[in-house]
Design brief:
single chain; 795 residues; 11-stranded mixed beta sheet; globular
Length: 795
């Protein structure tokens, strides 16, 4: 017995020592927010004040010193995130995650971002401020990499440290640009439906209207060959440890419509939720330069920013900059494909992907004149079809680093406007406001027209010489509004007006947010910062009441259960709010899922229906399709002896929704509050492992909002008891030029990516409750609340 006690005591002692060691190690990894440190490459002492939310305010004597310091402090809070961001585009995730990441690596190695980045670096002017300042930033990162504390993620995954380079920066922008695109998830699905059922099935998707100028003739094909492309690419993005960009709101109100007479800018870019979040805030102050910016990990210049003179933000344009071409092979030589001028040889390049704890995997990248053959890069495709991906980003000269530098160093509106032309991809709505009273909405991207017989929402013909002809649209013809007479500009990923009669194709989001934003901005002429802070978290749907009216019009209450009647009454009385105590959004979103499932799954199949729910186009479809009693989709094609009607499908789906809610939330309809259903967890890549989830993840929280309201909390329609909110505002910013030092912001979790930092999650409660904090610019106010870290030149 004594021996057993000794053994147990010894084990407890060992566990205690291990626990103390782990805690001690984690404490050691904390970022340094005060004291002093040495830094090579700076000419003079640089001071960083970390405010009460961990935002660094960098005071330097010149921009180069400031950028070196920025790189260092950015790395100490976000080195792990930087490492992830630089690895995805060149296909280097399997080096740290092993075989599960191989599919993602295989695809990204093949589509050519890494090669495009190498070319862009070689073409960069070595004497430009872009080059000099970007390298100063990288020097700061690399000094921290060599001398700073190792993030716990590096230790857990055994990551070998490597210096950051300019190619890494371009690769990060390259992945960001790819994640903006929607064609890879949408075009193959729509092609399958066209080929299987004909164009009549696509009327509800608006393909024959605003998204195309002429119907295409149907042709027969093996439909699974195309839909599997959508499935594979969607899976890659869904499982990626790096969040994708998915939408956004922004509006700028001119002085004629504000109480102060000064411009107010609001912006909340929508990105898939993650931990750490997307943006790192930093405020740089030099004698000749000041900018409060929002930085993507591993990039030197801010994509969002403001100073005392001007402010800018962005949303996704949602234009179509990716096309797919079905190549037709030479029947006598599969290494060749047909073109209008004869046969051409495919090019074949061998590449090797390194895999953790395994031998390297060699792949062959096959390329046509249109781009890489992606069907050879995606696993699980039972097809010999050669489908090429043509992407503006890799086909045009990349000047994105110069462009982003220029946005944050503009002299005036004209200077700001002209430099947007440097961004060939992704397509962006870039919003601008300044202290002089100017407001603007300007679109970026290399836009083009195609032949009127071509609909780019489908897989195109690579051999006919017609589908791939492009007429480039000059930048001065881009959609834009500069100082309009109505005194405000806004964007919510909605479609712009035609360009010289040409309605530009894309994957635009529904009118819901646009209607709500415009409806709130138009009648009011005394806007304040406080008014805008309420508007940016508005949870009211502009279209929900109309959709409910369409859906309920055919239902007969006399044949319903008591709970069905209660739920129906709640829906009919609903005014579209999606607040935590509301019951209507719980019923509405459950019904939407069952209505969509009963309407579309029989044609698409289970897997492809799930992909459809992940696309923007399904959101575009709901309102119009719900009021189309003659839609062919109502019929369930699996029941061969009958033709289902709209009334049957909507009645069936409503009953299924109520039955599901009774099982999940109980029989009392009053207890079906949105707060019990609509949740968010900000998940760290390692937090997917249950053992580490509580340490790395932030949440779970109940959260107000829903799909396509201004407070856009994005989720996939589901029958699950808990709706997992996948994405939403990556920050909320309100810049008020009447009170620039008290502009407002909030991040979803916190400024730091280090789990031991007090700034890892100190904004999460503010964010989920729709509150804000100041973006501090007054030095005396900053000093009063900040810790101070002094960087001394080390020669």
């Amino acid at each position: 017995m004594k021996l057993l006690k000794k053994i147990l005591l010894s084990l407890l002692l060992v566990l205690a020592i291990i626990t103390i060691a782990i805690i001690g190690y984690l404490q050691y990894t904390k970022p340094q927010y005060e004291g002093s440190a040495t830094l090579k490459g700076i000419n003079q002492q640089t001071t960083v004040y970390f405010d009460n939310y961990g935002v660094p305010h960098i005071y330097a004597n010149n921009q180069k010193d400031a950028m070196t310091t920025l790189g260092y402090v950015h790395a100490q809070d976000r080195l792990w995130q930087m490492e992830l961001m630089r690895r995805i585009a060149p296909g280097r995730l399997a080096e740290i995650f092993g075989t599960p990441a191989l599919k993602t690596d295989k695809f990204f190695v093949g589509i050519g971002i890494d090669e495009n980045s190498a070319i862009a670096v070689a073409q960069l002017d070595k004497n430009s401020q872009t080059f000099i300042l970007a390298n100063a930033y990288l020097d700061g990162i690399n000094q921290y990499l060599e001398e700073g504390k190792t993030p716990v993620e590096f230790t857990l995954l055994g990551i070998k440290k490597e210096k950051f380079t300019l190619k890494d920066v371009y690769n990060i922008f390259g992945f960001m640009s790819f994640s903006f695109a929607m064609a890879q998830k949408t075009d193959p699905l729509l092609t399958d439906i066209r080929d299987r059922f004909g164009m009549k099935y696509l009327k509800d998707f608006n393909i024959t209207g605003s998204l195309g100028t002429k119907q295409l003739k149907s042709f027969k094909g093996k439909y699974k060959a195309y839909s599997e492309i959508s499935k594979s690419v969607a899976t890659l993005l869904e499982t990626s440890p790096v969040p994708a960009f998915i939408g956004s709101n922004s509006w700028v109100i001119g002085g004629a419509k504000t109480k102060s007479g000064k411009v107010i800018l609001a912006n909340d870019p929508h990105i898939m939720y993650s931990q750490p979040g997307t943006w790192y805030e930093a405020h740089i102050v030099c004698p000749e330069y000041e900018m409060y910016g929002y930085y993507i990990a591993g990039t030197p210049f801010p994509l969002l920013g403001h100073n005392r003179d001007y402010a800018y933000g962005l949303t996704m344009f949602e234009n179509d900059d990716v096309d797919f071409f079905q190549e037709e092979e030479n029947p006598k030589n599969i290494k060749q494909y047909i073109t209008p001028v004869g046969f051409k040889n495919y090019t074949f390049n061998q590449k090797t992907i390194k895999v953790k704890d395994s031998t390297g995997v060699k792949i062959i990248v096959k390329t046509s004149q249109h781009g890489p053959i992606i069907t050879g890069l995606l696993d699980g495709l039972a097809t010999n079809k050669s489908v090429a991906m043509s992407w503006i980003y890799t086909q045009q000269k990349s000047q994105i680093l110069d462009a982003v530098y220029s946005l944050s160093h503009a002299k005036n509106l004209e200077d700001f406007h002209k430099n947007i032309e440097l961004i060939k991809a992704p397509g962006l709505n870039i919003m601008y406001g300044d202290a002089k009273g100017n407001i603007a909405w300007i679109t970026s991207g290399k836009l083009y027209k195609v032949n009127e017989s071509v609909n780019t929402n489908f897989i195109l013909n690579g051999a006919n010489g017609i589908d791939d002809k492009k007429e480039w649209i000059p930048f001065n013809k881009h959609p834009a509004a500069v100082n309009p007479s109505w005194n405000y500009v806004y964007t919510s990923n909605n479609q712009p007006e035609p360009i010289d009669g040409y309605l530009y194709p894309g994957y635009y989001l529904p009118k819901d947010r646009a209607l709500r934003i415009d409806g709130l901005l138009s009648p009011k002429s005394d806007w304040t910062k406080e008014d805008v802070s309420k508007m940016i978290v508005d949870n009211t749907s502009a279209t929900a009441q109309n959709i409910v009216a369409n859906l309920t019009a055919v239902l007969t209450m006399s044949k319903m259960s008591s709970n069905e009647k209660r739920a129906l009454t709640i829906l009919k009385e609903w005014t579209g709010e999606n607040d935590l105590n509301d019951v209507a959004p719980t019923v509405f979103n459950k019904w939407l899922y069952w209505y969509l499932k009963d309407t579309f799954e029989d044609e698409f199949g289970k897997d492809n229906f799930t992909i459809l729910l992940n696309t923007h186009i399904i959101k575009q479809t709901i309102e119009a399709q719900s009021q189309n009693a003659n839609s062919p989709w109502w019929d369930n094609i699996t029941t061969k002896d009958r033709n289902e009607t709209q009334k049957e499908i909507l009645t069936q789906s409503f009953k299924e929704a109520i039955t599901s809610l009774e099982k999940q939330l109980g029989k009392d309809v009053r207890q079906w509050q949105w707060a019990k259903v609509h949740k968010v967890t900000f998940q760290h890549p390692i937090g997917k492992v249950k053992l580490f989830s509580k340490f790395f993840n932030v949440g779970s929280y109940s959260i107000a909002g829903t799909n396509e309201v201004i407070n856009n909390q994005l989720f996939i329609y589901t029958d699950d008891a808990e709706i997992n909110t996948k994405g939403g505002p990556s920050t909320r910013r309100i810049i008020d030029f009447s009170d620039i030092e008290n502009s407002l912001s909030v991040l979803p979790t916190g400024q730091s990516g280090n789990p031991m930092s007090k700034h890892y999650d100190d904004q999460s409660e503010l964010f989920v409750s729709g509150k804000f904090r100041k973006m501090m610019m007054n030095k005396k106010e900053i000093e009063a609340v900040a810790t101070k870290l002094i960087f001394i030149s080390k020669e």
